[in-house]
Amino acid sequence: MSTVAESADRYRIEPTALQALRRPRLLTREVLAGLVVALALIPEAIAFSVVAGVDPRVGLFSSFVLSVVIAFTGGRPAMITAAAGAVALVIAPVAREYGGDYLIVTIVLAGVIQVLFAVLGVARLMRFIPRSVMVGFVNALAILIFLSQVPQLIDVPWAVYVLVAVGLGILFVWPRITRAIPAPLIAIVLLTAAVVVFGLSAVPNVADQGELPRSLPELLIPNVPLTWETLQIVAPYAFAAALVGLLESLMTAKLVDDITDTRSRKTREAWGLGVANIASAFFGGTGGCAMIGQTMINVKTSGGRTRISTFLAGVWVLILVVALGDIVGLIPMAALVAVMILVSVSTFDWHSVRPSTLRRMPLSETVVMLVTVVATVWTHNLAIGVVLGVLTAMVLFARRVAHFTTVSRTVEGDTARYRVDGQLFFASSNDLTTQFEYAADPAHVVIDLSRTHVWDASTVAALDAIVTKYEQRGTTVVLEGMTDASASFHGRLSGGLGSA
Fold first, then answer.
1. Is 165 helix (H, G, I), strand (E, B) or coil?
2. 451: which strand partners?
3. DSSP alpha helix (H) spans, 286-436
4. Phi and psi dihedrals of 234, rounded to 5?
5. Between 20 and 30 A from 175 (CA), which of 4, 25, 55, 299?
6. 199: buried, middle or exposed (CB in 10 Å: 19+, 13-18, 0-12)?
7. pLDDT surpassing 70 at residue 2
């Protein structure tokens, strides 16, 4: 009997978690994808804990709680949320200067702010992020993923380079043999076995990154006075963490949407991220957001498609570090480096930098992409790169559109007729007043606005200034052809904006 899940395979419609639970093959894929992601999460969670100035187990517990909670509350299936470097950088001063209790309050407040962002519909602003910024975002994160692995390749035994090369070979060849078992899992198992069998004790492993926890996380209530002074201390960090985390999660969700040809619920993702951060804080964890590298491992490399892989990524983290910590500690960092290098290469949009693409692409689009990439790589902050990319796109767009506005003049008897073509807004209307022949025009002037639209107060002020200049010379001016929306907007503001 044909099932919905079978149809999903046939027509490449993404299966739901319920459909995956009913089909052993899909469920196996989700379980193994979660395991691979967990293995990649552990060393990064430890590293980000160091960045945030907290014990390594804090980042690990945070990754567990965030993954499990977001699996139920988030709006993007298969996306991995855990303790993140961008958030760690923002909140590091709180842990360093005020201690762990203030850190918990900061993350709770950040989660509340993210929930408020969801209620206010901030996630809908994603539609204003242009494609060139998205391409720059993707390329920048690919570069950052690669650069994050470079320290693991400096001042290390020669065996590390051999293991990385072998790992990359496995990752490229194994998918051609079978996709039933994710290639990263095979690479990690085989390289770990090789290190143990050949006694390569000098090769850095996961245990070298920090102590793994031996117990389950506990519910914590911060010992912090609930005063205005406390709010003044934590609010700036909380707002920054909320904004950075939300932006990275929404951008990652959009990236996964494009990869899987599906749609996610961005507002629910914002709400779910806030709830997950609140839960993480009360279990003593740091804040987090979508993990781009681990999400790419789950979606592109391991084939994860449902909330099951997200949920199990968190569960596997807890099982691996608490119950199997000694075994996990043996995993060579070279295996994880190989996986992340593959993720970096497969994430980069190589088509965007081909000479043929660059020749066809408008220069402004290429500039926006480069600004996004350079700003992100320079600051190691994807949020800053995206914001600067969007601002650059806005400026270049306004400049380009402004040049499309033209004014043409014809004279018939005692009437001069002007026709305005193009969109009128602050960039195009600033020099609108200079395009009229005030002294040379006859007694009557008609300005035809039927081929334009009045978008803002700057345009209304410019039109008022034109009318005033003519009236001072005794010339009658008629504005005609405005659309109903333009006429209503102009009528509401005209004469009330002061001198132009």
1. helix
2. 421
3. 292-296, 307-318, 325-328, 333-347, 355-360, 363-379, 382-402, 426-429
4. -90, -25
5. 4
6. exposed
7. no
Contacts of residue 423, Cβ cutoff 8 Å, sequence gap at least 6: 401, 404, 405, 452, 453, 455
Tokens of 422: 């193009």
**Lookup: tokens for 251:** 């951008």
- Mean per-residue pLDDT, 244-267: 87
Could you read off the pLDDT of 216-248 as tens digits, one per residue?
Answer: 788 888 888 889 999 999 998 898 889 888 888
pLDDT band at 343 (very low <50, low <70, confident <90, very high): confident
Tokens encoding 250: 């929404």
Could you give the 3-state DSSP secondary structure of residue 239? helix
How many whole angstroms from its chain centre is CA 243? 11
Here the tokens at position 103 are 């850190």
Contact call for residues 477 and 471 (beta carbons, < 8 A): yes
DSSP 189-210: HHHHHHHHHTT-TTS-BGGGG-
Q: How far is C-alpha 383 from the chain's CA centre? A: 7
| Angle, alpha carbons 168-173-175 (nearest 5°) | 110
* Of the candidates 375, 429, 436, the residue with the CA atom closest to the CA atom of residue 402: 429
Cα gap 420→422, rounded to integer Å: 7
Q: What is the pLDDT of residue 3?
A: 41
Please, what's the largest Cα pairwise distance for the chain?
A: 99
**What are the angstrom distances between the C-alpha of 369 and each of 74, 136, 178, 289?**
29, 4, 36, 23
C-alpha span between 459 and 489 (Å, rounded):
10
Residue 150 above 50 pLDDT?
yes
In this structure, what token pair is assigned to residue 351? 């088509």
- Taken as a whole, the chain contains a residue count of 500
First to last CA, the chain: 74
pLDDT at 54: 76
Alpha-carbon distances, residue 276 vs 62, 69, 81, 463 (angstroms): 9, 5, 9, 52
80 φ, ψ to 5°?
-100, 125
- Could you tell me the two tokens for 18? 């319920």
